[in-house]
Amino acid sequence: MNPYVLITLLFGLGLGTTITFTSSHWLLAWMGLEINTLAIIPLMTQHHHPRAVEATTKYFLTQATAAAMLLFASTTNAWLTGQWEIQQMTHPFPTTMIILALALKVGLAPMHSWLPEVLQGLSLTTGLILSTWQKLAPFALLLQIQPADPFILITLGLTSTLVGGWGGLNQTQLRKILAYSSIAHLGWMMLILQFSPTITLLTLITYLLMTTSTFLVFKLNKATNIATLAISWTKTPALTSLTPLILLSLGGLPPLTGFMPKWLILQELTKQDLSTLATLTALTALLSLFFYLRLSYAMALTLSPNNATGTTPWRLSSTQSNLPLALSTTTSILLLPLAPAAMALFTP
Amino acid sequence: MCFIMYLILFCFVLGLVAVASNPSPYFAALGLVVVAGMGCGVLVGHGGPFLSLVLFLIYLGGMLVVFAYSAALAAEPYPEAWGSWPVVVHMVVYMVGVVLAFVVFGGVWYEFSWVSVDELGEFSVFRGDVGGVALMYSSGGWMLIISGWVLLLTLFVVLELTRGLSRGALRAV
Fold first, then answer.
1. Domains held by chain A: number
2. What is the ipTM of this complex?
3. Residues of B with Cβ-Cβ distance to A9 under 8 angstroms
4. Which residues of chain B lie closer than 8 angstroms to A52, CB-CB?
């Protein structure tokens, strides 16, 4: 892609998220979300094959619907309450509608069907931007509204963890597995949103770090399905031994980073006298853990058959910059002891 | 005046149904012309003639004309107008939906809630519509700059998407 166009689009991505972060007016927040959608469309079609164009069309339609719903709810709120302030939403109807619109934008169940197909049609880098950066702006808005009904966020969260775990079980394509993992993690974030927004923000940031590591590992190995992943251990043996730790961190096992949000969420839910919900959610996490374990099994715990020439790639150095991968891998494995500092840092 | 406003809104909904019933794009553009025209009528009737003129000139006279020319380039031998069977089915479903929505949500005639933009005519120096535009250029200066920049970004996005004829992202180009 032309470097000037690339810079303009990336700048547009940054500008959109920044506008939504710093806005207190619903119209400006909507503008930021639309700028994000517009700017990422050519990035998604930069590899000009029809699958990418199909994924872009599906992404554009869902995001446009969600933005239209958001605008409709904001104008209804302005009509009913006379003001456009984000943090002053008191009427239940526009509040609920905005929560549903932002859930569609981000890919929560039951509005999740677009996410696996869209991620499957993209390159790993663009999929990384979609899974990480594009989730920041809607969550900035979700963290600021007070939901009218306590059940809507809990329903969205529990359905998402269930769908994310169950849907990922039958997948062999890595990008679809990461899509379902995204749905499950977003479900965990929504569960705790009304009780402790601090933990939601903490879950979001740790999820961003862990999924960045995973996407970058797959990109380094140029692996898009489990079969390719299984024979990729010869490319970077050191990283292959670390990847199960990243995947198990995504699955939420102690003493890795991914345990921190799940622990805090279960503790907070129990404190709010919702122990049944906490148990159900922990059980749905087992479903996700299964496919993370399957990926670790295929990649590092077993050696799949390959030719003799497949044993030599580690001798060549990779041309990909390894600094982002190194940083995100370290943080997604070792951050658990910093839990008290993280809780203090993310209090809004 | 109330009756005229009712007629205009009735034609507005008819035009919306004509667009949403999925005919060929140039017939849908005709529906959009009707919708935009009726919307302008509503704006004029409620005291915002400047915004109505801007809508007519820019939306109808600029964007819809360009769209009509582009849609004409994609002409098909058997276009689907509002007489063909699938379009009629869509139209009937949407009309039934509108009537159902009116029965469920409507009932009372809300004439007293139709306030006009110049209801504060004796109390305020600024008219509603022109005062809003003036605000956009003064206190809302940054938003205006961002809106202009977003339009430029949209231009780059569209140019990037259609670049490369059929080797690019869109094979139909």
1. 1
2. 0.86
3. 153, 156-157, 160
4. 169
